[in-house]
Amino acid sequence: MKAKITVNKAKSVGTIDDRIYGSFIEHLGRAVYNGIYEPANACADDMGFRADVIELVKKLRVPIVRYPGGNFVSGYNWEDGIGEKSKRPHRMELAWLSVETNEIGVDEFQEWAKRADTDVMMAVNLGTRGPDEARSCLEYCNSDTDTYYANLRRKNGFDKPFGFKVWCLGNEMDGWWQICSKTAEEYGRIATEAAKVMKWVDPTIELVACGSSDMGMPTFGEWERTVLDHTYDYIDYISLHCYYGNKADNTPDFLANAENMDKFIRTVADICDEVQKKKNGTKQINLSFDEWNVWYRTKDEEKTAKRWQIAPHLLEEKYNLEDALLVGCMLMSLQNNCDRVKIACLAQLVNVIAPIMTENGGGAWMQTIFYPYMYASLNGRGDTLLSEVECDTYKTTKGDSVPYLYTSCIDNKNGELTVFSVNRSLDSDMELDILLEGYGDYKLIRHIELYSDNIKEENDKDNQRVYPISREISDTPTVILKKHSWNMLTFKKK
Ligand code: AHR
After folding, report:
1. For the whole model, what pTM was predicted?
2. Ligand 1 pocket, mutate which of 72, 172, 242, 352 (most atoms under 8 A from CB)
C-alpha cells in the first residue's frame, strides 16, 4: 500500500502546550501506595518514594500530574492528608471501596512532584464538599498571607507556598457513579461559587470546570452548554474524559477511535465558542483532556473485589501492542488539536491503567503504552503542522471510512521535524512518502518503530516483548511503515 503526507511550513495548526503530555495519579488501588510510595521497598528514598518509579516518570518528561482524583476526590477531606502522619485518620473510601490511610496527602505529593520534575494539577472536592473547603485548600497550598491555612502549612513544615497553578473544580460530576453527582444546573452553580472564591484567594490560578464524563453520556452537549453558561466568567478550561476499549475484539474499529477523539474535541471546542458568542465574551475557553487512555478489561473491578482493603490490586490493565497503537494515535490527536487542547492527562501513571507498573517489594517495569507516550512527550514539542494525508481507506462496522494512516507532524523549532505515524492495516506494510513543503533540504535521520508480529503481544515484569527499535535509514525518499506499527520519523535540516 502506498501513502503520502504533505505538510507546508505556512500551514501550522498552532503551538503545542507542553502540558498535553500530562498524566494523573489518583488515590486508587496501588497508584499511590506501593506505586509511587513504598517505604519498605529497597529503592525507597528518604521519604519512602520509589526512586525507580521517579526515574521512569522522569524518562517520560511528564510536565503536570493531576491529583488526588478522579472519583476519589469527590469524597476526600484534603485536611486528612496534612500534618503529623500518626494522627491521620483511616477512612472508608467510597469511590473505590477501599481503606484510605492518608499516609500520603498534599504535603507529601507536592514533594514527590518536585522529585519527579513535574507540576501538580490539583483537584478540589465538589461532591461531598464545596466552595469553603476549596478556598481553604487553595489558601493552604498557595498563600503567603499571615492567615490560618497558610500558617497551618508553615506549621507543617512548608514555609514556601506550593504554588499550584491549575485547579480542577471537582470530577465527572455528571456521572451517576460520582459521590454526590449533580445536575448541570447544580454543578454549574457550585462550580461558579467555588471558582469565584478561589480566584479571590489567588487570582493567578487557572480553573478547569467538569465537562461530560464522556461523549456517550446522555446529557453530553447540554451539560457543557449549561455549565459554561454558569461558569464562563470564572473558568479557563472545560474538561474532556475518554476511555476506549476493544471488547468486541475488532482491531480496525478500535483503532478508528482516533477519529472519534478528533470529533469529540472539535464538538466541545464548538460549544465553547457558541457560549462565548452568546455572552459576547472575549475569553476563549480551552480544553483540558484530563483523562484519556485505553481501558475496558478492568472496568468495574472494584464492585467485585474484596472491600475495604488498603492498596488493593485494582484496574491493573495489561496493555498490548494494539493498545499502544491507539494510545499513539490519541497522542497525535491531541497534537493535531493543539489549537484548543492545552492540557491533557494520560490516565493514569502508575499501576492503575498505567504505563508504569510496580511489583510490591520488587521492581518497576514498562507497559507497551509507555513508549508512544515517551516519544510524543520528548519529541512532540513545538508547532503542529497541518498534515494532508493521501492513503487507502477501510470501512468500520459503523460504516465510517477511515484512512489506514494516522499521523501528526511537529516542527520542533530546532531545525528538526518529527512525524508520528501509525499504519492501521493488519496485513499490509505501507510505502510512505513525506513532502515537507517550504522546508528546503531536510533529510530523515531517525526512524523509531514499535512493532511485533503479534498485535496482542504484552510486556510483563520479566519480559519487554514490545519495545521500540531504531530502523536503518535508507537513501530512498520512501519510508516503509510495517503493518500495525507505530513509528516516529525525525527529519533534520541538511
Ligand atoms: O481513571 C479512573 C477513573 O475514571 C477516574 O477516577 C474517574 O474520573 C474516571 O471515571
Report:
1. 0.98
2. 172
